[in-house]
Amino acid sequence: MAILELHDVKKNFGDKQVLKGLTFEVPEGSIFGFVGENSAGKTTTMKMILGLETIDSGQILIDGKRVHYGNSLINRMVGYLPDVPKYYGYMTPKEYLTLCGQLTGISKNDLSDRIEKMLKIVDLPINKHRIHGFSRGMKQRLGIAQALLNHPKLLICDEPTSALDPIGRSEFLNLLTSLKGETTIVFSTHILTDVERISDYVGILHDGVLKANDSLDNLKTQYAKSQIIFEFISEDTAEKAAQILGKNSHNNQKQVILNYTGDYQIIAETVLNTLLQSHLIPISMNRQKTNLEDIFMEVTA
Amino acid sequence: MKSTWFFIRKELLESWRNYHLLIIMIVFVIFGIEGPLMAKLTPDILKMASGSGFSIKMPDPTSIDSWQQYYKNMTQIGIYVLVVIFSGTVSGEVSQGTLVNLVTKGLPRYSVIVAKYIVTYLQWCLAIITSFLISWGYTAYYFPDNKTPNIWLGLWPLLIFGLMFVAITILGSTLSTNNYGGFLISVIVFIGLTLLNLFKDSKRYNPIALVTDNMSLVKGTEKISHIMPAIWITIFSALVIFYLSILLLRRKKL
Amino acid sequence: MNNADIITNNLPLFIPLILLEVGLDVAALIHIFRHKNYRMGNRILWVLLTLFLNPLGAILYFIIGRETY
User: Fold this and answer.
1) How would you list the strands of the sheet with A2-13, edge to edge?
2) What are the structural domains, with CATH classification, of chain A?
3) Does some domain include residue B84?
4) Are B93 and A86 in contact (CB under 8 A)?
5) Chain C residue closest to B30 (CA)?
6) How far apart are the C-alpha atoms of B93 and B23, rounded to whole Å?
């Protein structure tokens, strides 16, 4: 069942059409990586899902209920983590979370326990320190606490890792992975390795529509470019090897790149035999795997 | 409605922690003392300035001088203090992006305006009334005459004017992107109303009457019924401006 | 009649006024020295304004000088 559905969503800014009929679904319990270049419309899409931005045409459904601009009741099922969350600096984390909890309708009895639990999860101390003295990483962690406070069915993260250092990023991704099953996560990013590391589904937004939308494995098979890369000791030998291996290969300085279809085991064996017979010994041999970057380049090309 | 209450509590905390309440109270308490003090000192100061050679006949100060000073402060500097402190109340939150999170948590946008309006107005009322009571106490002690029979009659038009002026401050803050813009809008409205008062015919209808006729009301030379049209126009304008602010924030990009 | 007389004759008015202004100045100075960044101006400016422009300096500091967050 899909927790989030977009049907033919369009959005103009002035006479520029940013979204030209965006349609996709996010299955419940999955992690959906939302990828695209800067200014492709990722943030706009997310703001529309949150009811912060008007929808020109089409519709967005969360858990089967239609989203309207400015309607905040559906928002209570959604958690939102902006790239750089903004708080009231004069509050303590506990006071801020209390305000969030009250607004989102958590009962008075549960709220205090829930807040202490969330602060423990994100590893923030429970004391009287006010938010204005917090570092960026601490603010981001408080952001996670507020986003998850109301047990959201859907968690929306807009470029959550862009402001974090490598360690913070890694911790954050682990935290997201640990939420799998509890909640559905949609996160936008242009850091492709992050998507590859944690997401089940990938959507590539380009030119106002979703160019690709599938599980990562399916995308890999669909866009797979099977290659073996050999490296030789000199350019001379590389050139000879390329000639012997035929038209599916080409040499690039000391490297020879071979495109193939079919089973790696069988192909590799014949190729190696051919090379051995000509006394051309590669110094390295690599099976090239398709990664998300290749797919992204191909889709948006 | 519950959300509005939670946001009111947030606004109160903000006013307390950001020293807004403290500042507005101190300024108005000083005003409250200053009225009777200036009335008391003016003859002495003039005497000193004129030197010992001459002896000018100075009429003894009365409660009228004391209240005059009070209303002068309340309706001029007092208004600007209010605007300076609160002109960033909406624009600050919009420009910093602090509302985004709360709105996505389920805070209706109208709650923001309603809560800010109520809290701002309450603080201003508290300050004005405290200042009024201080001025009253001193005036009764130093100038026990009966030249100002209707002291309360001067105060409540001022409080009603506040209903409209707080609404203007909030609207100005919603319209602009920074607190200088909001400040400018409110001040321009105030000056505009004052200029409008130059047309004699409009005086009974101009909301500014609520902050210019206070002394006549206190002395009893003017009846409240004279400015009743202005009072109704002020209340009606307050409602319209308040509603406009709600509509504006609804359309504003957070 | 001199300055001192004016003050002693009106003590009930002057005492609270002076207390308020001194209190406000002290509060402003403490705040100025406990913070490094200001919305506008610098430390020297605010200290001078607070000390020599009574009580406006301290009030201005709290309204427009203090860093908001």
Assistant:
1) A16-27, A2-13, A57-62, A65-66
2) 2-222 (3.40.50.300), 225-289 (3.30.70)
3) yes
4) no
5) C17
6) 21
Phi, psi of A20 (to 5 degrees): -115, 55
- Buried b / exposed e along B62-92 (16+ C-beta atoms within 10 A): bbbbbbbbbbbbbbeebbebbbbbbbbbbbe
Who among A72, A87, A150 is closest to B103 (CB)? Answer: A72
**Is the complex ipTM more than 0.85?**
yes
Q: How far is residue B33's CA from residue C4's CA, in Å, rounded to a whole number?
A: 19
3-state secondary structure labels for all residues of A133-186 = HCCHHHHHHHHHHHHHCCCCCEEEEECCCCCCCHHHHHHHHHHHHHCECCEEEE
CB of A97 closer than 8 Å to CB of A119: yes
| B202 domain residue, yes or no | yes
**Of the candidates C1, C10, C59, which has its C-beta nearest B40's C-beta?**
C10
Q: Is any Cβ of chain C less than 8 angstroms from the Cβ of B171?
A: no
Q: What is the mean pLDDT of chain B?
A: 89
Nearest-CA residue of chain A relative to B96?
A: A86
Q: CA B69: distance to chain centroid? A: 15
- Please give the interface size between B and C, counted as residue pairs whose CB atoms are below 8 Å apart: 45
Q: Give, for all 254 residues of chain B, the pLDDT tens digit.
A: 789 999 999 999 999 998 889 889 998 999 999 889 888 888 777 777 766 555 666 678 889 989 999 999 998 888 888 888 898 899 999 998 999 999 988 899 999 999 999 999 999 999 999 999 999 999 999 888 888 888 889 999 999 999 999 999 999 999 988 878 888 999 999 999 888 888 877 888 899 888 888 888 988 888 888 899 999 999 999 999 999 999 999 988 88
Using CB atoms within 10 A of its CB, is residue A225 exposed (0-12), middle (13-18) or buried (19+)? exposed
Residue B203 lies in a domain: yes
Residue A16's φ and ψ, nearest 5 degrees, are -100, 120
Question: How many structural domains does chain B have?
Answer: 1
- Taking contacts as CB-CB distances below 8 angstroms, the residues of chain C near A131 are 69
Element (H, E) at A45: helix A42-49
- Start-to-end Cα distance in chain A: 32
Q: Say if A43 is an interface residue toward chain B (CB within 8 Å).
A: no
Q: Which domain holds residue B95?
A: 2-35+61-251
Is a pLDDT exceeding 60 seen at residue A222?
A: yes
Residues of chain A contacting C, Cβ within 8 Å:
88-90, 131-132
CA of A129: how far to CAs of A89, A236, B250, in Å? 10, 68, 34
pLDDT per position as a tens digit, A236-278:
888 888 888 877 787 878 888 888 877 788 888 888 888 888 8
**Per-residue tokens: B191:** 């000056």
Q: pLDDT tens digits for B170-223?
A: 999 999 888 788 889 999 999 998 888 888 778 888 998 888 888 889 888 888
- C-alpha B130/C-alpha A30 separation (Å) is 59
Beta-carbon contacts of residue A277 (< 8 Å; ≥ 6 apart):
none
- Nearest Cβ partner for A70 among B17, B98, B109: B109
d(CA A118, CA A97): 9
B142 with B67: CB under 8 angstroms?
no
